[in-house]
TrEMBL record:
Protein name: Predicted amino acid racemase
Matches recorded under InterPro entries: Ala_racemase (IPR000821), Ala_racemase_N (IPR001608), PLP-binding_barrel (IPR029066)
Keyword hit for Isomerase: yes
Native organism: Algoriphagus faecimaris
CDD domains according to UniProt: PLPDE_III_AR_like_1
Keyword check for Signal: no
Coiled-coil spans in chain: none
Amino acid sequence: MAYLTLNRTKLKHNFEFLKQKFNENKVAWGVVSKLLCGNRLFLQELINLGVDEIHDSRISNLAMVKKLNPEVQTVYVKPVSKRNVGKMVEFADVSLNSELETIHWISEEAVRQGKKHKIIIMVETGDLREGVMGEQLVDFYSDVFKLPNIEIIGLGTNLNCLNGVMPSTDKLIQLSLYKQIIELKFSKEIPWVSAGTSVTIPLMLTQQLPKGINHFRVGETLYFGVDLFEEKVIEGMHGDVFELHAEIIEMQEKPLLPVGNLAANPQGEVLEIDEALYGQTSYRAIVDVGLLDVDPKYLIPSDEAIEILGASSDMLIINLGKNPNDYKVGDLMTFDLKYMGALGILNSNYVDKKVID
């Protein structure tokens, strides 16, 4: 069986690196755990680092966090559906919101449960995912401030999550100004401007982060050390906290081109034939992981000499050329992962998960 490893030492290094940078910039932050898909073993590793605030988009994952450590502040990071409001209030201390009616439901549920529920109001800043339009924000806040058992602790935004709109100093200053307007109008303090995600970290590292931005929600850069502006690993961080290991289950020398009449494969793809390859062969390995677990485009072979040719539901096909490294059936092949690749693997029940040092 294929298995995924989390390197505890490298994860801790990345965490301490980010913690130092946030402390230097006087910015609070929480760790986004949705990549981990509620895996108890990996969530425990986060908590062992000393993480005191965990964000997730699945209520069941936040329930697992509370089971492991009730003292961790849990944050639900997408608009909650009406049918899940009760469970969300039970397991999330904070939620991100952009619908007034939903906040009314949260208020009613918080009263029933005898809890004070904290919320961050999300503001639309151009990426067109969730968020209240800026011109409606004051009226929106006016209504929310009146609701019982609701405490507004911040306003926030998401960028680069849907249409690829990147954060900029101007957009973040605009968000800080909204906070000032609301505080002045309603004589109420809003502690957080939660405009930072992994994609915003490069602005902080280059001293371009407006002073009003004081809270980040970080996942991808913690796990992959990535600068999402430059699409490269940040100097001083590790990009290989996660690795996939898959066993070779067949190894044969075969023609480079298929033989027979071609039609679409189960993924709807039709192979384009390069006639120059007729008559040529190479060693091809099949490894025990497939599309059911991960899209091959999110896998990066550790051996740069090999090529991923494609995948079926349960098998990945690798071109080894002349097989200079003498791979054999039973050997393990190792792959680094892009974010969406790790997400697929972590959501698969068919791939074991292990912690290593």
